[in-house]
Amino acid sequence: MTKIHPTALIDPAAELHPTVEVGPFTIIEDGVTIGEGCRIESAVRIYRGTRMGRDNRVCHGAMLGCEPQDLSFEPARSRPLVIGDHNHFKEGVNVSRGVKTKAGTLIGDHNYLMGNFHVGHDCVIGNHNVLGHGTVLAGHVTIGDHVFVSGVAAIHQFTYIGDRAMIAGCAKIVKDIPPYTIGDGNPARVSGINSIGLRRGGIPAATRRAIKQAYHTLYHAGLNIGDALARLKEQGGHGPEVKNIIRFFERSERGVTAHR
Predict the structure, then answer these.
(1) What is the Cα–Cα distance from 146 to 169, expressed in whole angstroms?
(2) Is 161 within 8 Å of 142 (Cβ atoms)?
(3) Domain residue ranges in the chain
(4) What are the tens digits of pLDDT across the range 106-145?
(5) Domain 199-251, CATH
(6) CA 226, CA 189: separation in Å to the nearest integer?
(7) Alpha helix stretches (DSSP H) within 82-121
(8) Which fold is adopted by the domain 3-140?
(9) 40 SS3 class
(10) Terminus of the chain with fewer CB atoms < 10 Å: N or C?
């Protein structure tokens, strides 16, 4: 049977899998769905309509699906927070529901959100990301897969952090950070390739060299970005990682962060 502490308040309209555990003084509102094997610890609040997959852990004091910190918010425009599987929300994590996009706020699978991390409304977070203590995402931020965000960083609204990028501690991100790079500084610049992250992720040496060469063309060949992208496409024969870099630059709406 579901293990619910007697001090927890669970709305009758919430749906919890029989294996879910709920700690003391937690509040789970109506319309919440929590999947198999989830562990909800003490003094957590899960707000109306939040949907969560299986095997997630939510630690003390976390708040999931709360009202967005947006002066234009109206409850009638509310969109849900949807969470995948195998995520870990540490103490004091705060994740807003959506308000301005049809999908709302989305969190994928196997993410680790450290203490006091804030996710603004309508953000999209992919899979296998590590998100550091005290960092804040403004609304509409997109984070790819296998991203490492260090502590106390601030990420501007509508920015996109590419796959396997790393954000340094205390960085101020105001433009998109391209895949496989390091964003550092205030405001941030691309300081190089995330070589350690790529090696730890099992990316082969030949692929790492191809990524480095692609960024040499983009940042160090004396070309503007349009001409550099054209040269990369003319070369052809690229693997999926370089193709991902090209797509990222072509689709960036806010602009890609310059090299230091």
Answers:
(1) 17
(2) yes
(3) 3-140, 199-251
(4) 999 999 999 999 999 999 999 999 999 999 999 999 999 9
(5) 1.20.1180.10
(6) 19
(7) none
(8) UDP N-Acetylglucosamine Acyltransferase; domain 1 (2.160.10)
(9) strand
(10) N
